[in-house]
Amino acid sequence: MKIPFHLIIEFAQKFPEEIEAAIQNFIPNYDLMENQNEEIRGLFWEWLVYDYERPSKMSFLVEYILRNPDSLPEIEIKRLKQIVQTNWYSDFQLLGTKPGDGVTVEDVFTGKKYNILDTKASLAKENKGLLKARVALVEGKYYFVGSNPILIPVVYTERLKRILRKQKNQKESPRDTAIMLYEYQTKVVAPPPLSQKEIEEKKVRLKEKYLEKAAKYKAEMTFEELLKLIFEENEKDLFKFWDEVMKKGIPKLMFFEETELFQDIWNYFPHRVLNNKSPAELFFQLQEKKR
Known about the structure:
By secondary structure, the chain is of the alpha+beta class. The chain folds into two domains: 5-182, no CATH class; 187-290, no CATH class. Helix content is 51%, strand content 13%. The chain contains 14 helices and six strands. Strands 1, 2, 3, 4, 5 and 6 form a six-stranded antiparallel β-sheet that branches.
């Protein structure tokens, strides 16, 4: 089912002061207009259209339906009304796919299972994990009705699901997902103080481990290509950097399951902006000066 999401966003953009206020409240200290991360932007527009609390207390989607500024046919307005009445955002465990048709998911907070009609999701390479998405019941069938679902390569245990279901007030939103992605990919862990000799030995082990993991996850990026990207990083947006790395040949599953490996590679190999030194080398030099 095709939803005129772009028209609703165009309608929302006629209220620039509200858009600016929403941007400021979305992710603290994150310049949404400057950073071009597609997933974050998509989550912002979804949150704005469905969840953002406006001064009028009316969501942009509801006001769009009432005004119908693009003179949509009655059948489309009827579908939008059903979306308003039935939509919810949640974590959905991916249970299976039917290529060309849709996916079967389980809402981890309720335990209920749904067959979602979505051709694009059914053709995705990943067939397991957690989908953070918005679902609605329209004309008797379930659809994804927000931005592209965010796939997190984790599988919840039955025990964890039971714990989550006891949290009666649990309510997810695209904003929560955006903050999680941003914090996860911008988290920097300082390296332990090692001598120059220990740093060189560590670099050899990191290369060996990367090659092992790259073979396991079928990564297309070579170790040298990754080092080149790290060397050329400009220190402006760590989130955008890792997002680009994944687009250029690192599977998401590999990044999320081997985060420590990527943090170590970042810490122990040179960056141009650090005068061709690594964070670990600078940290070692700082410790030496303190002695």
